[in-house]
Specification:
The complex is a heterodimer of chains A (about 290) and B (about 300). By secondary structure, chain A is an alpha+beta fold. Chain A has eight helices and six strands. In chain B, about 50% of the residues lie in helices and about 5% in strands. Chain B has a three-stranded antiparallel sheet with strand order 1-2-3. In chain B, strands 4-5 form a two-stranded antiparallel ribbon. The chains are: A alpha+beta (about 290), B mainly alpha (about 300).
């Protein structure tokens, strides 16, 4: 009964079932792998990447987890994440500011060591690094905010007076002293984490957060009028009308009677206070047909 | 000297009796030394402060000069849409260059730190006489290789590195283990109870990729004295890629005695366990078949006389 065509047919069937089986198995296994691989992109907020690290999405496409950056870090700042113990993707380099912060080497040896470009060789000045942004997260416990002169985060900052400044303001509590607020200026902060490391509190009041958590972003179309005005040296819009400023009390806010009340014009208003200010005020702007 | 009838002699015992213990374990011993040597190169830094070699098997720098990178990881990086830095590209190229000559899967049997684990599982498997278990087709690992590249592309990550036990174990030993022992134990149990030669022989896409690299490699094992084979089957018992033996060993006449399958890991265990010294390392152009040197009851006419 065996026709020449029959074994061929069986072969084809076997080929198709084998292929379907392999493809199905790979689809299941591949989905799991994709799930785990995507899951590994979740970087804990306290884990900071080395200077020049690509954005986390791109970083995991580029980092081969060889640890050459770790080996060339002279301060043992960088470590490789260990399986099941550390938050970042297994084997990838990171540091924890409160343990050992980045000392901001001038020659950036970690970037020089990276064979793949996961640490961007385009970063040549460590002061332009953005490993994160320091945020004074707890004003209630920060000693400076309590009116004391701790100043440690400010003093240890490698970018002192640029990334962190002290802004004096009146101490309402004592009534007689100043409060020196440490203020972080994000555009200068490298995220090295020395401020967080050196904060004298048992739990740091200033912490380095990932930039995405620490900062907002303005809309692209936002313009700061005052900056553009300064740049131009003149008002941005020509011939702009100077509208009256709203001031408290009788005055320009009262468009029906600029300069003061008119008794009886509006029901329920008290009579015009005694005094000689009623007619002496001359507004710079008058609505057509309304003023006196 | 053959295992006549139902007599069951332990694998390799004949070879031990004939060639001595060292003679019957020569390549196994040298393989272990090689594996330990390559691991020690990486451990010299953290243990002794001698930084000849830095990094790990994913990418390394030797004498602050020679970069070497895993080609499969580098390929995944390209699929994940990151163009590798020059150092990584040169490193991967050099690795491919070397393994294309000596056989890609030489990496598996002479360098890979997972090999002692799966060899151990295989040895225990043999001792306990466990069923071979789940045996997917040999092409499965090629499918897995393709899937890994697809997943790398889809997720934009170097996908296999989230589970790759080779780099995890190596990195663990050099940098810090974490829970890697658990992963190693899982591989061991998988090979012992679920699938004989399962991980290295059926699953691992790294080995599959090295196999592709070495598909045309020079260094080959040849069943040079296949006419002396007494069918004791010891080579089949120890070979991690059993299917590579038959075409060479059982070939007749003009059929090449060379093991040309890219799956062969050049581990040399078949040379060790063969009491008749059938197998030998040679190159892929050496197709001569040697007549048995010692007197066998029914010798075939020698095709060529050497030695």
């Amino acid at each position: 009964m065996a026709t020449p065509a029959k074994p061929k047919k069986i072969d084809r069937r076997r080929f198709l079932t084998d292929t379907a089986r392999m493809a199905a198995g790979c689809a299941v296994g591949g989905s799991l792998l994709a799930y785990v691989a995507r899951d590994a992109k979740a970087l804990p907020d306290q884990a900071l990447r080395p200077p020049g690290a690509l954005a986390e999405d791109d970083f995991l496409a580029a980092c081969v987890r060889c640890g050459l950056c770790v080996r060339d870090c002279p301060y043992d700042t960088l470590v490789l994440a260990e399986l099941g113990q550390d938050g970042p993707a297994t084997g990838t380099p990171y540091f924890t500011a409160r343990d050992i912060p980045c000392e901001m080497c001038d020659d950036i040896p970690c970037i020089a060591a990276c064979p793949t470009g996961a640490l961007d060789k385009g970063l040549t000045n460590i002061e332009h690094a953005q490993m994160g942004t320091a945020v004074l997260v707890d004003q209630e416990n920060c000693l400076n905010f309590l009116g004391l002169r701790c100043d440690v985060c400010y003093r240890v900052c490698p970018m002192i007076d640029e990334a962190i400044t002290l802004e004096p303001r009146h101490n309402e509590r004592s009534g007689a002293h100043a409060i020196f607020e440490p203020i972080v200026h994000a555009e200068h902060c490298t995220g090295c984490g020395i401020c967080e490391k050196k904060c004298v509190l048992p739990e740091a009041a200033i912490k380095v957060l990932p930039v995405r958590l620490a900062r907002g972003t303005p809309h692209e179309h936002y313009r700061k009028g005052w900056e553009e005005k300064d740049a131009k040296g003149a008002p941005v819009v020509e011939g702009i009308i100077d509208l009256p400023d709203r001031l408290p009390g009788p005055g320009t806010d009262n468009l029906a009677a600029p300069g003061g009340y008119i008794d009886g014009l509006v029901d329920g208003l008290p009579a015009m206070p005694k005094g000689n200010f009623g007619g002496s005020f001359e507004p710079t702007f008058k609505l057509p047909g309304v003023g006196q | 000297m053959s295992t006549n009838g139902k007599v069951h002699i332990p694998v390799g015992q004949e070879a031990v009796e004939l060639k001595g213990w060292y003679g019957a374990h020569k390549f196994l011993i040298w393989r272990r030394i090689s594996q330990a040597f390559f691991l020690f190169l990486f451990l010299m830094g953290p243990w002794l402060g001698i930084w000849w070699v830095k990094g790990n098997l994913a990418s390394s720098l030797t004498f602050d000069f020679l970069p070497l990178s895993d080609p499969f990881i580098t390929l995944q990086m390209i699929f994940a849409r990151h163009w590798p830095g020059t150092t990584a590209l040169v490193g991967a190229f050099l690795v491919i260059l070397v393994y294309a000559q000596i056989g890609g899967r030489v990496y598996c049997s002479w360098v890979c730190p997972i090999n002692p684990v799966t060899d151990g599982a295989s040895w225990l498997h043999r001792k306990l006489g466990i069923q071979k278990g789940w045996q997917p087709k040999r092409s499965a690992r090629i499918w897995i290789l393709g899937t890994v590249l697809l997943v790398s592309f889809a997720t934009g990550t170097i996908a296999w590195e989230v589970i790759n036990p080779i780099t995890m174990l190596h990195r663990g030993l050099v940098f810090g283990m974490g829970w890697v022992w658990g992963l190693v134990a899982a591989i061991f149990l998988f090979d012992l109870f679920v699938a004989r030669h399962g991980w290295c022989g059926h699953v691992c896409p790294v080995g599959a990729f090295y196999g592709l690299i070495g598909a045309r490699s020079l260094l080959r094992i040849s069943a040079v004295k296949r006419d002396a084979c007494d069918d004791c089957m010891d080579c089949y018992a120890v070979c991690p890629e059993i299917h590579v033996i038959s075409p060479a060993l059982k070939g007749k006449g003009e059929a090449t005695p060379l093991i040309l399958s890219p799956d062969c890991t050049n581990c040399g265990r078949c040379i060790d366990v063969c009491a008749m010294d059938v197998f030998a390392f040679t190159n892929r152009f050496d197709t001569h078949v040697e007549a048995p040197t010692d007197a066998v009851s029914d010798p075939e006419p020698p095709t060529q006389n050497a030695a």
